[in-house]
């Protein structure tokens, strides 16, 4: 329309690049602002005069324009109730509003990627929730998304747990110990660390007594601790197919998988494909040989294989140890190649903490050197760590917040808070139990996902479950409140649909703001997907919920005597509820109809 105005007024067709339109800043009246400075060569007039003329033309020729004002060459346009009514009617009539059209792209998202030597903890929870919601977000943005998990089920850390089980567990199993399998194996990992630290301390004293300096004694003790040497020997035997080592490995891993599956189910997390490092590391070994043949890698006299990246500003990277066993990088190389060949990916996203930034720099560079141009399609979604008031968590020392314990604690906190607030009218025990799970999990998910992925976050369970403020329960309660109004309307026999908006020409300022934020939802999905940030959707949902509550306080929805006005308001709040459900579903959060 602005293009049409310029052509009609000045006889020149302005290109879209000259039509600079953006939302009006909050301190000015208006919905959208046209910057007229790029149009002055056509108008040959001062900025204010040009803006005034365009504003007058738009007002005269479009019922969508209610008024305008000019501020120093900026044309602020106020859209009419007719325009906003058309917008709301379009939204209310659109099934699955917010779902964007197909892009034709295939994107893989890898998340979770646990080690089978310990249970999942709070850090894993952020990884899982972020990974799942990023996948759901990209799917909502129109992409074909493949959610995958790479289980690190082999390596020296696994052997440490296996060795400690042989030395300290007295044959305990999940059944005989009453522990989840992942917890039992995690206890063994902590036990290994205790044994190892004791051996290192004893060896260090021995070396010092023999005249070795402090630093050398510490280094040699760390390398020569008997338990570590035994674990390294166990890893060598594993890679060479030793039947006893393999049998123990399979048994203990089966315990862990069963434990992981329960935690995933409790979190509402799923995968389309699970890879296992024990199966993919051989692909990496084959690539190492390919790199040696190409002269990209170098075998050292001790038999180890390295890639020299110093000319690229990085370091030398170990790919095979001197005994031929592989490292993380080895299997990541092979797994990436396998995935791109299998799925013809447009993008592969690794959801991994920022402590691994360097690892992914190296991964992409080595793949590039091996001739794989698709290495540019690898994206590391680097997220900040989750910290507690007392600091970082350490798995080997057993100072972590266990995922299962945290989920149970969130349930208990949701139960206590709900009982205190008396938000359980007419619910039986089964309904209450379902609600407590919904609130507890919703609080946990929202508190973690609302934070920008790149930021380190401090987790506070009590703050997360507050029914006021920027929390999951606040949005859940808002949705339940809307559902309550809609049920009352139904009980009173008040019908409504998008057709109820026919002929509506006026909306209050808060109603206009609500329609405006509703209309921004698809754009917010697109923006969040481009940024790989579900936090943008979380905070959008909070702003919408907050605006509804302001509207609810100001506007008598069912007390209005004019039923045609009531119907319009019901369409509006029903649309709010629908968009909240869609937004929160991207985060994996359910919204209850009663609270």
What would your notes on this structure say?
The protein is an alpha/beta fold and 595 residues long. The chain is 56% helix and 11% strand. The chain has helices at residues 2-10, 40-43, 47-61, 81-93, 122-140, 156-168, 174-177, 181-209, 214-224, 226-239, 243-267, 277-294, 328-343, 357-369, 403-421, 429-449, 461-464, 472-491, 509-519, 521-531, 535-554, 563-586, and strands at 20-23, 32-35, 65-71, 74-79, 106-110, 144-151, 273-276, 298-299, 305-308, 316-320, 347-353, 378-383, 386-387, 457-458. The strands form 4 sheets. It has a 5-stranded parallel sheet with strand order 7-6-5-11-12, with helices on both faces. Strands 1-2-4-3 form a 4-stranded antiparallel sheet. Strands 8-9-10 form a 3-stranded antiparallel sheet. It is globular, with a radius of gyration of 30 Å. Residues 393-398 have low confidence and may be disordered.
């Amino acid at each position: 329309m602005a293009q049409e105005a310029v052509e009609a007024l000045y006889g020149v067709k302005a290109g879209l690049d000259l039509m600079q339109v953006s939302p009006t800043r909050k301190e000015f009246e208006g919905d959208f602002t046209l910057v007229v400075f790029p149009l002055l060569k056509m108008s040959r007039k001062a900025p204010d005069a040009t803006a005034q003329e365009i504003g007058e033309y738009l007002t005269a020729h479009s019922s969508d324009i209610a008024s305008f004002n000019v501020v120093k060459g900026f044309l602020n346009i106020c859209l009419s109730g007719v325009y906003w009514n058309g917008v709301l009617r379009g939204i209310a009539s659109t099934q699955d509003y917010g779902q964007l059209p197909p892009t034709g792209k295939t994107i893989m998202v890898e998340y979770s990627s646990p080690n089978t030597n310990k249970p999942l903890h709070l850090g894993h929870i952020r990884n899982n929730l972020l990974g799942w919601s990023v996948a759901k977000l990209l799917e909502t943005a129109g992409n074909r998304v493949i959610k995958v998990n790479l289980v690190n089920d082999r390596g020296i850390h696994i052997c440490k747990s296996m060795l400690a089980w042989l030395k300290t567990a007295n044959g305990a199993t999940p059944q005989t110990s009453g522990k989840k399998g992942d917890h039992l194996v995690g206890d063994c990992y902590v036990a290994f660390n205790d044994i190892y630290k004791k051996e290192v301390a004893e060896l260090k004293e021995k070396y010092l007594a023999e005249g070795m300096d402090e630093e050398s004694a510490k280094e040699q003790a760390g390398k020569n601790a008997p338990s570590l040497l035994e674990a390294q020997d166990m890893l060598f035997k594993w890679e060479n197919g030793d039947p006893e080592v393999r049998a123990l490995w399979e048994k203990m891993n089966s315990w862990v998988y069963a434990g992981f599956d329960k935690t995933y189910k409790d979190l509402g997390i799923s995968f389309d494909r699970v890879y296992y490092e024990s199966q993919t590391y051989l692909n990496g070994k084959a690539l190492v040989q390919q790199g040696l043949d190409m002269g990209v890698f170098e075998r050292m006299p001790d038999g180890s294989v390295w890639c020299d990246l110093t000319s690229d500003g990085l370091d030398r990277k170990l790919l095979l140890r001197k005994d031929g066993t592989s490292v993380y990088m080895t299997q990541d190389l092979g797994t990436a190649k396998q995935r791109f060949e299998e799925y013809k990916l447009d993008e592969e996203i690794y959801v991994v903490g920022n402590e691994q930034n360097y690892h992914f720099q190296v991964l992409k560079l080595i793949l590039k050197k091996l001739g794989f141009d698709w290495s540019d399609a690898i994206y590391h979604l680097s997220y900040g760590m989750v910290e507690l008031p007392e600091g970082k968590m350490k798995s080997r020392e057993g100072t972590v917040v266990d995922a299962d314990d945290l989920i149970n604690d969130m349930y208990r906190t949701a139960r206590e808070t709900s009982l205190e607030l008396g938000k359980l009218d007419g619910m039986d025990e089964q309904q209450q139990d379902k609600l407590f799970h919904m609130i507890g999990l919703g609080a946990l998910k929202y508190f973690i996902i609302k934070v920008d992925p790149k930021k380190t976050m401090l987790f506070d369970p009590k703050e997360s479950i507050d029914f006021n403020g920027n929390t999951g329960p606040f949005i859940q309660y808002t949705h339940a409140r809307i559902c309550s109004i809609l049920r009352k309307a139904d009980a009173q026999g008040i019908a409504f649909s998008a057709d109820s908006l026919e002929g509506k020409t006026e909306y209050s300022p808060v109603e206009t703001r609500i329609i405006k934020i509703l209309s921004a939802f698809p754009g917010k999905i697109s923006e969040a997907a481009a940024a790989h940030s579900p936090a943008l959707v979380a905070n959008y949902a909070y702003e919408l919920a907050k605006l509804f509550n302001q509207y609810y306080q100001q506007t008598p929805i069912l007390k209005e005597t004019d039923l045609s006005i009531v119907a319009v308001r019901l369409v509006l709040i029903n649309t709010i509820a629908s968009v909240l459900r869609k937004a929160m579903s991207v985060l994996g959060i359910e919204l209850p109809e009663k609270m």
